[in-house]
Specification:
Largest sheet: 8 strands, antiparallel, barrel
Radius of gyration: 25 Å
Pfam family, one: CarboxypepD_reg
Helix content: 10-25%
InterPro entries: CarboxyPept-like_regulatory, Lipid/polyisoprenoid-bd_YceI, TTHA0802/YceI-like_sf
Protein name: YceI family protein
Family: Belongs to the UPF0312 family.
Distance between the termini: 63 Å
CATH superfamily of the largest domain: Lipid/polyisoprenoid-binding, YceI-like
Order of helices and strands: HEEEEEEEEEEEEEEHEEEEHE
């Protein structure tokens, strides 16, 4: 314990007394959470008077951020998920270290939640995309064009339910020959498994606008538990005056979990899509009629 404290003191002391490069000034910033504890990984951006970003980084485990910049006037923006952004003005003096007053972050107001009841996913304003690696090199981007889903919002949002069905034959990577191969028995086998389905009855609030939507994905005849890392974007009004709720979400799938055996395909000279696939969703929902 004593050695750890000595190392921490030496590390902090060396950061404070690190030499400033000739013709530069140093800026120091301490970021605190609402209970005055150091905030780790807060985003800090330093911009010049023209709005150009000069330095960008994150606070260390002690809530500190330090940078050297040319002398002059700057604005510093501090942001963190679930907190209101803070902006400060500061002047860097040549050869001097300027310490800002501690930046105290305050929780951001939560966006209004959808009203309880059934909400229909609007396919015209929703995207179901995926990203994978082609032979371990370039990324392959694709999407599914036909799907439908319903979200049942409970009085207590954590008890809400979600059901989404996707037509596997609607896969679209922009290359017809590749899409036909992906529909074949080597991959999705859409003749045998025409749909994939995700159902969830567990919504976990992770703070701010972040939610984990935990459920079961049925794909290729196999069911696996997955978690959607989701960000709720709030309520808006559409062009026809309709109420809309929006969110984004992502998850990482492993092909072998769904019996899509990439090693077997490699042995047959098929090395099209990587073993890990990232799914990305942009969702809008409207009240169901």
């Amino acid at each position: 314990m004593v050695l750890a404290l000595l190392r921490r003191h030496r590390s902090s002391h060396s950061q404070e007394t690190a030499p400033i490069p000739p013709g530069a000034g140093a800026l120091d910033c301490l970021v605190l959470d609402p209970v005055q504890l150091p905030m780790h990984r807060a985003e800090v951006a330093v911009r010049d008077p023209n709005g150009q970003e000069v330095v960008h980084g994150q606070t260390d485990p002690h809530g500190r951020f330090a940078a050297t910049v040319p002398p002059g006037d700057y604005s510093i923006a501090v942001t963190a998920e679930g907190f209101q952004p803070v902006r400060r003005s500061v002047r860097a003096e040549e050869g001097a270290r300027t310490a800002l007053d501690p930046v105290a972050m305050e929780p951001a107001p939560l966006p209004a939640m959808p009203a309880p009841g059934a909400w229909r996913i609007d396919p015209d304003h929703t995207a179901v995309r995926f990203v994978s690696r082609h032979i371990g090199l370039a990324e392959v981007h694709g999407r599914f064009n036909r799907f439908e889903g319903t979200l049942w919002i409970a009085d207590r949002v954590e008890n809400s339910r979600l059901d989404v069905v996707v037509e596997t034959a609607s896969i679209d990577t922009g290359v017809a020959q590749r899409d036909e191969h992906l529909r074949s028995r080597d991959f999705l086998d859409v003749a045998t498994y025409p749909y994939m389905q995700f159902t969830s009855e567990r919504f976990v609030h992770r703070g701010g606008s972040r939610w984990s939507v935990q459920g079961v994905l049925n794909l290729h005849g196999v069911s696996r538990n997955i978690t959607l890392d989701s960000r709720y974007l709030g309520i808006g009004t559409g062009i026809m005056g309709e109420t809309r709720a929006a969110c984004s979400a992502s998850a990482e799938l492993h092909r072998e979990d769904f019996t899509l055996d990439w090693r077997s395909m490699l042995s047959r000279g098929i090395a099209m899509i990587g073993a890990t696939i990232r799914v990305e969703l942009d969702v809008q929902a409207v009240p169901a009629e």
